[in-house]
Design goal:
Two copies of one chain form a homodimer.
Chain A: H1 5-19, H2 28-35, H3 39-51, E1 55-58, E2 64-67, H4 76-83, H5 91-94, H6 106-123, H7 127-130
Antiparallel strand pairs in A: 1-2
The structure holds a DNA duplex.
DNA sequence: GCTAATCCATACTAATCTTATATAGATTTA
DNA sequence: TAAATCTATATAAGATTAGTATGGATTAGC
């Protein structure tokens, strides 16, 4: 039960943008150096962030990426839901039809409740909570 | 971010044993039929459950498997920790040395807190909570 | 117009993990 | 003696992950 690096990197990218938002659009190359993530992989990760309206971009020279929302408005929950193919702990939580017993399955309800508790926590943690501190560029 | 089937099956096995604890030792063949898990796979899954002292076994004819603890004493948290190779959401939570920035990384602390909240919930959910209901043998 | 930059799509791959199944027995006890 | 657990290891198919590679199209500052 492990978060994908995409979620972890996604969080780091947004924290990086939040930290550097005073200096105008932030270029992928800069993020790449600071976060040690390849430019090409960053391109892949930023795309969904843009689709989700968490990031906007400026094209052309001096262009780059900017947070589209205030850091207080972006939560880890949003990021994780965006990047995890399956955001529930078990499939039958969101797709009860995958299991013939789902109707009155106590175990399913337990996985569902645990998933909910987890996301309550993630949803209440924002980029703003994470951007302070002594340059924790990692994880 | 998905639980392995081993955790899910582990929970189902223990619930099955709890439900059938009045009829003496429960044989792997019976569990296999009820839970639709192969005998050989069940053997693999029961071994760690025994090592963790959640199940005891009786050998020989009429033998089988019995819960070693009361259902109220076995939690989903124990099961998940037992079966998930990595029980934290991200590696650096338990192994900060994996990341050079772990010392004062805010993001790491957030993943740690989310992991903790999740396990608080799993630890407070017991097999006893799951064994009632209309035969939910699945998930 | 040149160039720095984002944007887009897709393909490939290496490695790892998952989910079993298979094989071949040793041991225990009704 | 036979039903059952126990042990250990090997194999394999499939999925997923984490990236890299390829090859460009587009935008806009200078």
């Amino acid at each position: 039960m492990k978060l994908s690096t995409r979620s972890r990197y996604g969080a780091r990218i947004l924290v990086d943008l939040a930290r550097n938002k005073d200096q105008g659009p932030v270029q992928i190359g800069e993020i790449s150096k600071r976060q040690d993530i390849s430019v090409k992989y960053l391109e892949q990760l930023i795309r969904p962030l843009k689709k989700a309206n968490l990031v906007t971009s400026v094209r052309g020279p001096k262009g780059g990426h900017i947070l589209a929302e205030k850091p207080e408005k972006i939560s880890l929950g949003q990021i994780v839901r965006l990047f995890e193919g399956q955001s529930d702990l078990v499939e039958c939580v969101s797709f009860p039809e995958k299991c013939p017993m789902s109707d009155d399955c106590q175990v399913r309800l337990a996985w569902r409740d645990a998933t909910e508790v987890l996301y309550e926590k993630l949803d209440s943690t924002t980029i703003s909570d994470l951007m302070n501190g002594n340059k924790p560029e990692d994880d």
